[in-house]
Amino acid sequence: MIRDEMSFYGVITEIWELDYEKFRIPIFKCDWVDNGRGVVVDELGFTSANLNKKGHFNDTFVLGKCVEQIFYIQDPADPQWSVVVRLPKRDYSDFEVEDVVTDNGIIHQPITVLMPSIELSGSLSDEEELGYMRAGEEDIVVEGE
Fold this sequence. Notes:
Layout: E1 10-19, E2 24-33, H1 35-38, E3 39-41, E4 47-49, E5 54-55, E6 61-63, E7 70-74, E8 82-86, E9 132-134, E10 140-142
Antiparallel strand pairs: 1-2, 2-5, 2-6, 3-4, 4-8, 7-8, 9-10
């Protein structure tokens, strides 16, 4: 088996479904970006694509199972280029199918607006300097300013 690490970037223009009576195969017709002139990777590892530099005109179709969903975000420094944003892959192999339709929600901790109150043991006068101490094997005391 040969695995090629080359990526192709494009925009789906049409979605087709090949019907073979016993099964169906989805395919996508795409406008592909020319890898030589329209795809760059910057020094930070971000991939950008110029969607106006089209290429691969002889291979416009791709099987639906051979693609990943990505998003393009227009580069504010150069509007002709778009940064490629990949999504995390989803694994549906352990997904249980239920007949009940329910709402999906995100559970999160409540957002607090107020700072929590802190009680100090003892009282400090305005003229005392307060030091900060970190717990650990060795205590390090940092004098306050």
